[in-house]
């Protein structure tokens, strides 16, 4: 197989840089002709045309209403919106987590990616020697407190589709009915309690708490997690004891949700008939 050379790498980076410049131009100028775009990015019209043709193929650029006109494609707009939303929740969570004074453990942020829950943000506080979830660490949607939260607060239709999709990915076969029933029971408990917990699943040797984060439309966006309680705390959590860590987690998740524009109306839950993902 041909090995990539340094010049190949440089060419690829240069192409990406030019492609970004073209997309930035369309964002600033709106629907534009090749000559307007090439003048904006200071590139020859011929190379600008080739870039636009490739971007049209990818769906990142569309032909405009008028002949010879180009505009940002819907794929680019959607991807940009998702990336922006992801960066927003991570940025807000980072600041909220760092303000959790007196905590001795790790605060992490999980988002759902298909049928897995993925850690995208982690803040370590205090002197705890617990192993913390690293960025990129993931759990199947059937395992762990963050997965329980990300599944429980989906709307009914999305919940059913995800359960079905997970069956095929996990090759559950005839276990679908029992898995669905267990998931339904889990979701009802989590929605009623307002948070989920696990022991040894998200972080070995610790109890992990997870609470939902909602966006401005009331869709489940992420799960805020705290890992720092010992396994012996399980009985207290199960009994619904008024633990400082639970209160702090719910307040942190609420603060992040408010940062995303969510307004608490007392009606959040899985059966809201809406879904973002």
TrEMBL record:
The keyword Transcription regulation applies. The keyword Zinc-finger does not apply. Keywords: DNA-binding, Transcription, Transcription regulation. SUPFAM superfamilies: GAF domain-like (SSF55781), Winged helix' DNA-binding domain (SSF46785). Pfam families: HTH_IclR, IclR_C. GO terms for molecular function: DNA binding; DNA-binding transcription factor activity. One of its GO terms (biological process) is negative regulation of DNA-templated transcription. PANTHER family: HELIX-TURN-HELIX TRANSCRIPTIONAL REGULATOR, ICLR FAMILY (PTHR30136), HTH-TYPE TRANSCRIPTIONAL REPRESSOR ALLR (PTHR30136:SF24). This is Helix-turn-helix domain-containing protein. It comes from Bifidobacterium asteroides.
């Amino acid at each position: 197989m041909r090995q990539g050379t340094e010049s190949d790498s440089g060419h690829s980076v240069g192409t990406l840089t030019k492609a970004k410049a073209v997309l930035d131009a369309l964002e600033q100028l709106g629907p534009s002709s090749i000559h307007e775009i090439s003048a904006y990015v200071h590139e020859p019209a011929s190379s600008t045309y080739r870039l636009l043709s490739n971007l049209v193929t990818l769906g990142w650029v569309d032909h405009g209403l008028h002949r010879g006109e180009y505009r940002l494609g819907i794929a680019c707009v959607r991807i940009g919106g998702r990336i922006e939303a992801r960066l927003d929740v991570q940025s807000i969570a980072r600041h909220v987590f760092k303000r959790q004074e007196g905590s001795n453990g790790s605060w992490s942020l999980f988002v759902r990616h298909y049928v897995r829950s993925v850690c995208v943000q982690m803040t370590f506080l205090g002197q705890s020697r617990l192993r913390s979830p690293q960025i990129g660490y993931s759990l199947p949607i059937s395992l762990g407190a963050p997965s329980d939260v990300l599944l429980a607060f989906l709307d009914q239709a999305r919940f059913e589709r995800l359960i079905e999709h997970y069956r095929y990915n996990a090759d559950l076969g005839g276990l679908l009915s029992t898995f669905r029933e267990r998931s339904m029971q889990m979701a009802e408990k989590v929605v009623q309690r307002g948070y989920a917990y696990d022991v040894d699943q998200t972080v070995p040797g610790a109890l992990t708490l997870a609470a939902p984060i909602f966006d401005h439309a009331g869709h489940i966006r992420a799960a805020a997690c705290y890992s720092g309680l010992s396994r012996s705390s399980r009985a207290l959590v199960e009994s619904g004891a008024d633990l400082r860590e639970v209160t702090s987690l719910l307040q942190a998740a609420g603060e992040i949700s408010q940062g995303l524009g969510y307004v608490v109306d007392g009606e959040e839950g899985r059966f809201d008939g809406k879904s973002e993902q």
